[in-house]
Specification:
2 copies of one chain form a homodimer. Chain A is 49% helix and 13% strand. With 408 residues, chain A is of the alpha/beta class. Chain A folds into 2 domains: 208 residues, Rossmann fold (3-Layer(aba) Sandwich), CATH 3.40.50.10490; 171 residues, Rossmann fold. In chain A, the strands form 2 sheets. A 5-stranded mixed beta sheet of chain A has the order 1-10-9-7-8, with helices on both faces. The first copy, chain A, has a 5-stranded parallel beta sheet with strand order 3-2-4-5-6, with helices on both faces. In chain A, helix 5 packs parallel to helix 9, helix 10 crosses helix 15 and helix 12 packs parallel to helix 15. The interface between A and B is large, with 120 and 120 residues.
């Protein structure tokens, strides 16, 4: 269950609740939108499809000491979120590329792959992402040089169903390929093969991830998502224009990068939108703590926590006095929860509204639920402000200019 | 040489130049400040001191397949910047902790260290950082269990000269220890042992880093730093309240995290200050590109580039048509530079002022120069607005509350 606590926001700005009728209308707008297919997906993917993903993933993993995830944006951040948080011990080493044009970066990657059997999962919704295709050329040349005719068996493809360069690549070399449904946008594709297939390669229990998302497709989740949407919209209206997503569990740091695309790309339009930023606590308190406490008062925080952080690790005893004897032998999980209370109290006291989102455990179910919750909340946030959550008209400006410069 | 190009900012907002007299006064204020010792440090550390750092680093490296850097904020971000960008091939694996209280994170770290000989570099200016001391307890218990009486030889300490818990630890176990000068604040300590010692462990040529910084201690650098400070202050005054630090070279991504602390912690005071955010291009164009192009028009960008990105890697030929034939056999470095021009043109056309900082090469000299340049520019930025660049009064609010809750 996802819970939303806005008490530390309401103390600073009123958060009016939409009427049931308003909420119903927003929900209807979402379901009527041609690009809302992701809403039903977690329940649509059945055991058979999951088994197909897992079989392909296991086959690749069995051949590889390292696997390179090639993709950008929605074709990378969802996968990386799940892998960073949930990869099993003993999984292959994970490397990422296809989201930049740096030759130095790719050269270093090739050095790191030396002496390691490797494979590739390449993902692009459009099938035409420049950086992804360029990186694929480099990696496929390396695979061919090393493995000859068996190179294609080391490449899994994820792409949309339309004709595209990546589709042609997959056909040309008969690579196993998985579809991103045509009506699911990149930033809503974490729970499609774009996120699930790479995650499965690293031993993530993707059936649990889907179960976590599907189990939440209920009135309670919708209630939580609306409350989060209402709070952030009210704060934005009250002049809080920057939202910092944070967690005190480092396993959620990459989820922040995914969250940033989800909300930034959905809302940042027509000169409007909450600016999305991220932090990892307590670490970033040592860098951003001063600003959050004392800088411009147009920030609010959204903090993701897990009700059971699971770890039983305790602060060890020490032979000498380092000032920590009062916490010796206590669980880190307990201390971390206390520190979180203390920090959020301090921020709220400093005028920073805090929204707290609580998921159950930081496992497959918890992350599946969190991802689905944020997707739903983002759609509600946008639709209740009259914004289309599924387009991104501004990205053409730079893409067109790059194509002109590169003559492609 | 560091160069600053503000033409894509001036086109959107005027950037008045301070008079020579005003600049002189700011420079004098900086040099008269009791905490400005870092200004001279790159020239002060001599060959003998560098040799001492390198000897200790080599001794640790020789024993270790993995080295854990334990520290937070200024005692971690500078080190990590240099290691991420410049670690040599074949260096030990790098792990980081001491900047969170997550038991799950530390447990995972212990799992990853299994079967690997490891060592520790622990760093804390105050010597009393809670998360750092707690993580040190965990790691030292593991070292003792594995290596018994020789455990202390696997720990290097970096701390201030005042009595502290970390100092007592170092004394108790006779660990080799290096000083952070008393008058150098954490966020200005990247070019002290806090950054240099861990970097040396991973094979970074720290003499080159210092040379890069010292070679820049010249009128040209001061000119560039003032121009950057003037531009960002003028933009802030004109209503551009959020600055995004970005680079098209992934090796500079971690420098962004360091930059964020430097500027955010120095300027975010009294309800004022530019909000510092970071991005890694082209990757984050796939997440934040829409917002930057089309969201709230109070953003500006500071983009770090390297005049020689060095890599000779070319886009390989391909047997089939993926649409990239016009760029086949061309250098990635060239394509990346063209993409950068295209993207920054698009952003400026969309109303986002862009400041471009150019360093020479992404090597030790280039990073040393960039670090020193940003430190100087930050001090100038603050002092010309009447802000103390070296205090952080707001961080006590959360620290006091944590201590109360944890009873320490």
């Amino acid at each position: 269950m996802i819970r939303v606590d806005i008490s530390k926001a309401e103390a600073i700005a009123a958060v009016p609740r939409m009427t049931d009728g308003e909420r119903f209308a927003v929900r209807q707008k979402l379901l009527a939108h041609p690009r809302s297919e992701w809403v039903g997906l977690p329940s649509v993917y059945g055991a058979e499809y999951v088994a197909r993903l897992e079989t392909a993933a296991a086959r690749l993993r069995a051949q590889c000491g390292a696997v390179v995830i090639v993709g950008a944006g929605g074709s990378s951040l969802g996968a990386r979120t799940l892998i960073d948080a949930l990869a099993e011990d003993g999984a292959p080493e994970a490397y990422y590329c296809g989201d930049n044009l740096s030759g130095a970066y790719l050269e270093k990657l090739l050095v790191r792959l030396r002496g390691k059997d490797f494979g590739v999962v390449v993902s692009s919704k459009s099938g035409g992402t420049l950086e992804t295709l360029a990186a694929l050329r480099v990696l496929y040349a390396e695979l061919r040089a090393r493995y000859g005719a068996s190179a294609p068996a080391r490449v899994l493809c994820v792409t949309g169903d339309e004709p595209s360069a990546l589709k042609r690549f997959a056909d040309e070399y008969s690579c196993e390929t998985f579809d991103i449904p045509a009506n699911v946008g990149g930033r809503y594709s974490a729970l499609t093969p774009a996120g699930l297939l790479p995650a499965a390669v690293f031993g993530v229990n993707i059936a649990e991830v889907l179960r976590g998302a599907a189990s939440e497709a209920e009135p309670e989740l919708s209630e939580a998502a609306f409350r989060y949407a209402e709070a952030r919209n009210a704060l934005y209206k009250a002049g809080f224009g920057t939202e910092i997503f944070a967690s005190f569990e480092p396993c959620a740091e990459r989820l922040g990068a995914w969250w940033r695309q989800l909300f930034g790309e959905s809302e940042g339009k027509d000169g409007q939108g909450i600016f999305p930023a991220t932090a990892a606590f307590t670490g970033d308190l040592h860098s951003m703590g001063q600003y959050i406490q004392d800088g411009r008062r147009d920030l609010f925080e959204t903090v993701l926590r897990f009700s059971d952080a699971r770890s039983a690790l305790r602060v060890p005893a020490s032979e000498f006095d380092d000032g920590l004897s009062p916490v010796a032998l206590r669980r880190f999980a307990e201390l971390n929860a206390l520190a979180e209370e203390a920090v959020l109290d301090a921020h709220a006291a400093g005028g920073v509204p805090v929204i707290r989102i609580t998921a159950a455990e930081p496992d497959g179910r918890g992350f599946g639920a969190a991802v689905y919750f944020f997707e739903l909340a983002c759609a509600y946030s946008c639709l209740s402000r009259g914004i289309d959550p599924f387009d991104q008209p501004g990205v053409e400006a730079y893409k067109i200019r790059i194509k002109q410069r590169l003559d492609i």
